[in-house]
Amino acid sequence: MARKDGKDRGILQRKGREGWWVRFYVDGREKWQRCDTKSQAKALYGRRKAEQREGRYFERPQAMPFRELAGEYIKAVDARRKRKGDDLSRISRWILAFGDQDASTITIRQIERVLTELHEAGMQPATQQRHLTVLKAAFNRARRLGLVKENPACLVRPPKVNNVLVRYLTHEQETTLLAYLPKKYRPLIVMALNTGLRQGELLRLTWADIDWNVGVLTIHETKAGERRRAPMNSTVVGLLSDLKPASKEDGPVKHVFPFDARYVRRVFEDAVKAAGLTPFRFHDLRHTFASRLAMQGANDRTLMALGGWKSPAMLSRYAHLSPTHLWKAVEGLTQVGTVTKTVTEELATEVETQKLLKEVVSRLGLEPRALALKGRCSTV
Fold this sequence. Notes:
Blueprint: E1 11-12, E2 20-26, E3 29-35, H1 38-54, H2 66-80, H3 85-98, H4 108-120, H5 125-144, H6 171-180, H7 186-195, H8 199-203, E4 210-211, E5 216-219, E6 228-231, H9 234-247, H10 261-275, H11 284-295, H12 300-307, H13 324-364
Antiparallel strand pairs: 1-2, 2-3, 4-5, 5-6
Helix pairs in contact: 2-3, 2-5, 3-5, 6-10, 7-9, 7-11
């Protein structure tokens, strides 16, 4: 259709480019298609407009290799997350599986096949679930960028994880474990047991993060990516007070525990094995912290605040260790039983009184007082 100026709508020649070009819009986005002649461009423009009116025009998406899709996710991880090592290793496993395959052609069965291979290789269900979470995040980002239209990972059922088992130390086991640890690593373990901080949070703790006046530790980088504060008990205050002078003998030291995470893990595993506590992990020190609080009767809000948990569902594993509220509920039945017992005793006393009254009446020839009759009686 020609406009008032005589030019055809949607058909034009572009500067510096050969042929005739058709311009139209799909979902508000400008699209261009090239034709050799003007008559071909007119015919193509008419077809495209007719297809749009009839709802028959579907744009063919460009192929997106999974490697490039994963690259977009890696860029986001590098820019936003500080703890990116784990995510990068997990997305690398998916790149190894899919490589340059078109991301839009990846199926649910292919993803499940990779998870099965990870399971057969000895990977724990929780770790498999984290791999699947990273894949979902990569596809979700690609969808937001318009690179793919669907996320097949969302339809994959995640491996079932059993987190009911909670490993925690008794006080006797704690003493045994500390005895097998090198002396310089013992304060780190004691801190974990009394604060519930994760290994990474402890190793990143600096002297500037300690507020001696208020008695709290400031954790700037947590698992959830938010800053939180952890209170110090007398054990932690005394431990840090002893460490602070010693840490400055060789010059200014920024971190409270200037240890390499790899050496900490190796030393801890050796001590656990020597103490006969296998398969106890460093993270189980955090479980010990929460378990001891639960056994002392701490409520859910207190546990969430001290441990930095966001959801009460994370506390379900400690529910069996905190029977205080259950004892109170059962103890309430004794009060109901007391009332029931009192009522029963009163009924028994009344029955005995009636029996005694009948016996007295029969011996003395007396009759009990008759009940008043309702209504009126007439005599003739």
